[in-house]
Amino acid sequence: MRNNDIDSLFSFIDSSPTPYHAVENMVQTLKGHNGIELIESDDWECKAGNLYYVTRNDGSIIAFRTPKIIDFSKVAYNMVAAHTDSPCLKLKPFKKDITGNYMQWGVSIYGGALLNSWLDRDLNISGRINYIQEGELQQKLISIGDLFFRVPQLAIHLDREANAGLKLNSETNMVPVLGLNDDEYSFEDLLLERLDVKGVEAKDISAMDLYFHESQPCSYGGMKQEFIFGPRIDNLAMTHASYEALLADSPNTKVSLIASFDHEEIGSSSPHGASSNFLNSVLERITIALGGSREEFMKALTRSYLVSADMAHALHPNYEDRHDGVHRPLINQGPVIKMNARMRFATDSQTASRFVLLCRQADVPYQMFTGRNDIPSGSTVGPLIATKLGVSTIDVGNAQLGMHSAREMAGSLDHGMMIKVFSELFAE
Ligand SMILES: [Zn+2]
Fold first, then answer.
1. Residue 62 CA, ligand 1 centroid: distance in Å
2. Intervals of the chain under pLDDT 70
3. How far is the CA of 234 from the centre of ligand 1 (A)?
4. What domain count does the chain have?
5. In angstroms, what is the span from residue 185 Cα to ligand 1's centroid?
6. What per-residue confidence (pLDDT) applies to 95?
7. DSSP sequence for 226-270
8. Residue 226 falls within a domain, yes or no?
9. Residue range 137-189, pLDDT digits in tens
10. Both 376 and 255 in a single domain?
11. Considering 154, 185, 214, which residue would you say is the last residue of a domain?
């Protein structure tokens, strides 16, 4: 069940080890489709029938296509929101002391990582380095993809209880090994080498956002290649699906918009997370840049629709009791509509119905999910944005297993189905 949608997703995930790389890749793709960059600190002027994008802090991006004809009595935003970040190990600012002759570097746990999945994996390092060059602040993305690092698991002989329930201390047991100590060649030397900026020395590196991440490329799995295996499927898959649909250049009469935010995995509270003013500000500025007023912006919000797209939990065959008997998302059975009576997901019957209609128009099946009452629900950007904007919102996603593992698993058919549904939305 190989297909172009998944091949494209694989190349996006493999080349996007961090949110910064994901946004950079999207920017390059948007530019290739005549996307016009908007800078938040500049004046904006938008025209009908164009593709625009704006980024914030290099990890969050909003891209949109304006309608072919602007009629302010009908202007509305059809939006898909996702996130660019995934749980991982983030390098602390300073290195850990040497133990024995090992060279190590301390990490913070970013998001709700399944720590055991990071053990005994070959890890790379990517992110951004900030430095000072001739008195000016500079920044560069780096990706160390040719060197491999590890968090080695303790041998069973030294931890006889490991199979009865592995206990991992997030501070002391998860420190990756970079190599053996070498007075002549430090980790900072490696970073300087990869930074590759003339005249910049170790003292000039002012700060960095660097992450350990899975090195093995994505692959198909299963007897008929019905599965996909790879890192960061949550939520680069929905980010990818949304921008694939946007790039299709449908004959839209509404503003088609995608937003993919950094920091969802740590609660979305940051100047560029989903709880920030990023989306709100961009929406208002689009209306004004098209020649509308604040009044028209407020009216447009009431006509708008937001699809919050984040991956969903598929039924796990070895833990059947974690779902209720009916609402058990199955792999390759289409998009999952997520419901939660306590509004941990923003879906209600009206917003769900609109999505069901889109699925019907796209000739795509859909599934309904609600969690067990005795297992607290996760959440995502949907309820946060819905609360802020007051826009009709639904939470959806594709079914996957091993969410927040260093290497996750999903279906090879679901992705194309979600792109089709988003394309229907963006054709309105
Ligand atoms: Zn997610």
1. 17
2. none
3. 5
4. 2
5. 38
6. 76
7. -EEEETTHHHHHHHHHHHHHHHT----SSEEEEEEES-GGGTS-S
8. no
9. 999 999 999 999 999 999 999 999 999 999 999 999 999 999 999 889 999 99
10. yes
11. 214
